[in-house]
Predict the structure.
Amino acid sequence: MPTERVCLAATHNGNLAAARRCGFKTAFIPRPREFGPNQQTELMAEQDWDWDWVAGDMIEQAGMMGA
């Protein structure tokens, strides 16, 4: 399958950057409590100009992709 037909949906900006370098599509979806209630990192897309999609949750992401 061509890499441009694969999308990594993640909350970790570094993982998305690596996927982008490999030619994958990228979708940032935050997980604000992944590291507990006092989480301070990975709360927003740090490179949103570079990600194909930025969504608030998986339902929003599915809608953006036409599902």
